[in-house]
């Protein structure tokens, strides 16, 4: 005779209210913070930039319809964008490269300034790197010792001298980035044989969320579901929501 199935206790009234409150916070907080930051930017720094730019430009350079207007919202941003585009165009030619290299040599000669400039230059270069240089996929590897697993981001195939130096380990060496928790921007660069990787279906965004939350936020996963196409985001792997918000099944009911 089989043992009776254990009873599933439904959450009480206060537990349901708490879960509903947390769900509301997750939905409302990002929206409110986003709109608050945008409002602060428009009414604060961007407004001061408009005043500064419009006051510095001679009136004879302005179009006739701007002569009678004291402040044009967004005018300073437009001028800044045009200036950055022109700066990027100039930086691509020989003369621009000469002045940029000369300026960097001058900054490198100043002890404190060179450290600040080098730090922010590296930050922006990493943030604006090309898509082919970003993380490709999420995988599992045994690290820091056999029997333990950790999440890593696959970068690209190992090339150059490093690949030649590790050819005795394998011909399929791969660059992987093992991030730290809860700050996924720092970590370790490892060279691992491709055969040692266990690729995951979760997106890079989902992997970063899982690391940032120390494993508390995990993407939805159904091992029996068919493998989606790269453009398919209907199975819950797109990283657009949190686990406890749930998802709708085929009957339209929301699952936990």
Q: So what's the overall shape? A: flat
Strands, count:
7
Task: Count the DSSP helices.
Answer: 7
| Biggest sheet statistics | 5 strands, antiparallel
Which consecutive residue ranges, at least 5 long each, have pLDDT under 50?
230-256
Short account of what is shown:
This protein has helices at 13-43, 45-56, 75-91, 94-108, 111-127, 160-165, 204-212, and strands spanning 137-142, 149-157, 173-179, 187-193, 198-199, 247-248, 254-255. It is an alpha+beta fold and 256 residues long.
List the helices and strands and how they pair.
Layout: H1 13-43, H2 45-56, H3 75-91, H4 94-108, H5 111-127, E1 137-142, E2 149-157, H6 160-165, E3 173-179, E4 187-193, E5 198-199, H7 204-212, E6 247-248, E7 254-255
Antiparallel strand pairs: 1-2, 1-5, 2-3, 3-4, 6-7
């Amino acid at each position: 005779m089989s043992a009776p199935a254990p009873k599933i206790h439904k959450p009480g009234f206060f537990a349901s209210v708490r879960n509903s409150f947390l769900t509301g916070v997750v939905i409302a907080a990002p929206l409110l913070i986003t709109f608050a930051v945008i409002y602060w930017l428009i009414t604060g720094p961007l407004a001061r930039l408009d005043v500064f730019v419009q006051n510095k430009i001679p009136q004879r350079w302005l179009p006739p319809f701007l002569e009678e207007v004291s402040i044009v919202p967004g005018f300073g941003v437009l001028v800044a964008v045009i200036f950055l585009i022109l700066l990027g165009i100039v930086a691509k030619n020989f003369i621009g490269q000469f002045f940029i290299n000369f300026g960097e040599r001058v900054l490198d000669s100043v002890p404190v300034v060179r450290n600040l400039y080098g730090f922010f230059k590296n930050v922006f270069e990493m943030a604006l790197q090309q898509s082919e240089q970003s993380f490709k996929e999420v995988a599992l590897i045994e690290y820091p010792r056999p029997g333990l697993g950790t999440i890593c981001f696959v970068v690209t195939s190992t090339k150059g001298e490093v690949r030649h130096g590790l050819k005795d380990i394998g011909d399929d060496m791969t660059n992987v980035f093992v991030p730290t928790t809860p700050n996924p921007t720092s970590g370790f660069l490892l060279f691992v044989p491709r055969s040692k990787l266990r690729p995951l279906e979760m997106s890079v965004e989902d992997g970063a969320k899982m690391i940032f939350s120390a494993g508390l936020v995990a993407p939805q996963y159904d091992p029996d579901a068919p493998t989606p196409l790269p453009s398919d985001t209907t199975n819950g792997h797109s990283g657009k929501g949190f686990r406890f918000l749930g998802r709708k099944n085929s009957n339209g009911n929301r699952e936990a």
